[in-house]
Write a structure and sequence with these properties.
418 residues; mainly alpha; 79% helix
């Protein structure tokens, strides 16, 4: 029998074993489900749902098409994706997983990205949001706000490197997409800044015309689809919390800790971090908390490196969320999984390399004292306002870089012609 034919019976057997364990440990199962529900209600729902609704409405109003035309000179040469990917990247980095995957799926549905472009885009726009990284991980789990800067540099820097590496993905792919609609075909790049702005505004107007929904209809549709997605996210979080509890009760997690501890010891890392990495393999919140609560004898940089790996890997819970979003879009899961693994390794390596220059130089302490950084660790309203401010900052910086690159191209072209 092939592996594909064996997959369904094995999955059914595993689910049956989980059902038996749920009957054997009903109290533990209920407690794990309640913990997962608390994580969803207290953390994920307030931080993700507003961005789900906002991103859906921005697509309907054509704002993504506007930024797509303006950011194309930046995103094409660097990441080999259309300019609309710049908006997706900014939204994904600010609001966290799985917003990048949701927006990529929407662009794919509108035939604004090919399959290879969509796989590149979702691979490097899936990341932790600053509220979770700075507030929950640095302050809540490690009780050290100064870790925020080095964690952010390692995590988001690793994501950008993954984006650069993924630009080579799919170039030799023989798969061909259906011909995009006429509105999705990019026009020739204008030779003047005013022309590019006019092109961006006309793209926005055309996208709004093709959508055609009123503000009320658009809001209703955005809320409905966002509620559906956030419920799926919550269900997956609860499921993986219950699964981890059952695996722990069955002794499987203990065996996994032992095997992973031996691997870490051979690699020169503290084997006590095996519990954090094994937990983070399934669920990012539990894994990051375990890294922060690891033995005090473990050097802090190794615990932070484990947290950086877990944040970038995302856990199988996030993987399941992204896979459910990509289902039906034609985008493959395996490139995403490979990118998550590479992102995790890069983030851990970057953190260890940046530890002395950043954490040992006082930069981290100064960063944590800034109002912009402390806003992410304050109340929910302040954190949301800080996220919106960061979104504006990222988009503004991307627009400026895009303009500079476009001007350099125009200058180079004129020098060649003269």
């Amino acid at each position: 029998m092939t592996l594909k034919k064996l997959g369904s019976p094995l999955l059914g057997l595993l689910l049956a074993c989980c059902m038996v364990l749920m009957l054997v440990y009903p109290a533990s199962t209920l407690a794990a489900a309640l913990r997962g529900l608390a994580i969803w209600w207290d953390v994920l729902f307030p931080s993700l749902f507003p961005f789900f609704v906002i991103s859906e409405m921005l697509l309907g109003f054509g704002v993504v098409h506007l930024f797509g035309a303006l950011l194309d000179p930046l995103m094409r040469p660097l990441f080999n994706i259309p300019g609309s990917g710049g908006f997706v990247a900014a939204m994904g980095y600010v609001s966290g997983y799985p917003v990048g995957a949701k927006l990529t799926a929407k662009l794919r549905e509108q035939q604004l990205v090919s399959r290879a472009e969509g796989e590149r885009l979702v691979a490097f726009t899936t990341s932790s949001d600053p509220i979770f990284l700075l507030g929950a991980v640095s302050v809540g789990f490690f009780h050290d706000a100064s870790l925020g800067l080095v964690l952010a540099l390692a995590h988001y820097g690793g994501g950008l490197i993954v984006g650069l590496l993924m630009s080579f993905h799919g170039r030799g792919d023989k798969y061909t997409d259906p011909q995009p609609s006429e509105a999705a075909i990019p026009q020739a790049a204008p030779s003047q800044p005013e022309g590019r702005i006019r092109l961006a505004l006309s793209s926005m107007a055309e996208a709004r015309r093709r959508d055609g929904r009123s503000f009320g209809e658009l809001l209703k549709s955005a809320i409905q689809s966002s509620l559906q997605l956030i419920i799926v996210v919550g269900g997956l979080v609860v499921f993986f919390n219950v699964l981890m509890e059952l695996l722990t009760r069955a002794g499987i997690m203990t065996a996994l800790f032992s095997v992973l501890g031996c691997v870490l010891s051979l690699a020169g890392f503290p084997q006590q971090l095996s519990a954090a990495l094994a937990s983070g393999f399934f669920e990012v919140t539990i894994g990051a908390r375990s890294a922060g609560e690891a033995a005090a004898a473990i050097p802090l940089q190794f615990k932070a490196a484990a947290a950086a790996f877990i944040l970038s890997w995302g856990g199988l819970s996030v993987h399941a969320q992204v896979a459910s979003i990509l289902n039906g879009t034609g985008l493959r899961y395996l490139p995403f999984m490979a990118a998550r693994l590479v992102h995790g390794l890069l983030s851990a390596i970057l953190l260890l390399l940046l530890w002395k220059p950043v954490a040992g130089s006082g930069l981290s302490a100064g960063f944590s004292a800034l109002p912009a950084a402390s806003g992410f660790t304050a109340s929910t309203g302040s954190a949301f306002a800080a996220s919106l401010a960061l979104l504006g900052l990222l988009l503004g910086a991307a627009l400026l870089l895009s303009l500079l690159i476009w001007l350099l191209k125009q200058l180079t072209r004129r020098l060649r012609q003269s």
